[in-house]
Design goal:
Largest sheet of chain B: none
Structural class of chain B: mainly alpha
Strand content of chain B: under 5%
Order of helices and strands of chain B: HHH
Oligomer: heterodimer
Number of strands of chain A: 0
Number of helices of chain A: 11
Radius of gyration of chain A: 23 Å
Distance between the termini of chain B: 39 Å
Number of domains of chain A: 1
Largest interface: A-B, 28 and 18 residues
Number of domains of chain B: 1
């Protein structure tokens, strides 16, 4: 059976390598992706239409905002799915086997290092989130980094320390709030008489903005929603998996 | 794109993938997959897809490795096949 699987993998790999011969070369100016009407529009018009220098962010949060909204929903649903499958009441089952050496005596050095680095990580995560219009980054990356800072607290100080700062209920609330911010921004555009996620109409409500600036600011609002969801779900997944769904003990 | 650097990264990618598959120790396997993600991140960065590289570094090399290690801790450490 293993041999059969190996042969299948080798044949599939060979076919993929054979097919990759037909791809355009890397950075080829004549490749179809570089010559379509759409890419040319993104490259030449993004600065004019949205004033966002980082085209990737503009495509992600504005032109393809609908895609990104459902990516956020996918992350939200993945977190809920893990909770639905693994979550148990804290008293269920046998008492959790806690690795003794890690729990009884926490190392001073790791705790102090964690205390020093967590604020820096969180600050950098906020910078990545807020600076996504100008540099690589945005809601997803900033959110994952913010969630990782809570995971670091859980790794060094125990899961209960991290849950004190971001409890399970609050995490689920934040995750739902993130999706609500994103979808709500889209719905607001609909109420104002434009299409779903057509941000430029928001200039009626945002003070002192033109239609172009409204798109610019709405992207930040939407990215903040993404960051909320990603932060909360990353931490919830870690907390559920590391404690066998009991949200107690853990690594 | 720097071709020689590219080839080095691609060779290491294949090597780490094979090592991750053959290791019996799942904890070590998760660590090797972290290295794989990091090499992937280098490859994206070097092909100037910096946004993708950033996501790969945070999600692939960072959080998913931690999540896999947490899962290994709560299940079994040795793989049976």
């Amino acid at each position: 059976m293993k041999l059969f699987a190996l042969i299948t993998v080798i044949i599939t790999g060979a076919l993929l390598l054979y097919a990759s011969k037909d791809f355009p070369a890397w950075g080829d100016p004549l490749s179809p992706a570089n010559n379509s009407e759409l890419s040319r529009h993104y490259i030449t018009e993004t600065r004019v239409e949205t004033e966002v220098p980082n085209i990737v962010t503009a495509v992600l949060a504005d032109y393809r905002g609908y895609d990104t909204m459902f990516e956020t929903v996918v992350i939200f649903v993945a977190g809920l799915g893990i909770l639905a499958v693994l979550r148990q009441s804290p008293s269920a089952g046998e008492p959790l086997p806690v690795p003794r050496d890690r729990f009884q005596e926490r190392d001073m050095i790791t705790i102090m290092t964690c205390r020093l680095t967590v604020p820096l990580i969180q600050l950098f995560a906020l910078y990545v989130l807020a600076h996504g219009h100008y540099s690589p980054g945005g809601g997803f990356q900033g959110g994952v980094m913010f969630g990782a800072s809570f995971i670091l607290i859980a790794l060094t100080g125990g899961l209960s320390e991290a849950l004190k700062r971001l409890s399970e209920q609050r995490a689920i609330f934040l995750a739902a709030l993130g999706v609500l911010i994103y979808a709500g921004t889209g719905l607001l555009c609909m109420f104002l008489g434009k299409n779903f996620l057509d941000y430029h109409i928001l200039s009626q409500w945002l003070p002192d903005t033109t239609a172009v600036k409204a798109r610019y600011h709405a992207m930040l609002i939407v990215e903040i929603g993404v960051a909320f969801t990603v932060t909360a779900i990353m931490f919830t997944i870690y907390a559920t998996l590391s404690s066998k769904g009991r949200m107690r003990g853990g690594l | 794109m720097i071709p020689s650097f590219d080839i080095v990264i691609l060779i290491f990618l294949v090597v780490t993938a094979v090592i991750a598959l053959t290791l019996k120790d799942l904890l070590a396997s998760a660590m090797v997959l972290g290295i794989y993600s990091f090499l992937m991140c280098l490859l994206w960065a070097e092909m100037s897809a910096v946004d993708v590289a950033f996501t790969e570094a945070t999600v692939g090399a960072g959080v998913s490795t931690v999540i896999m290690i947490a899962t290994v801790y709560q299940t079994t450490r040795k793989s049976r096949d």
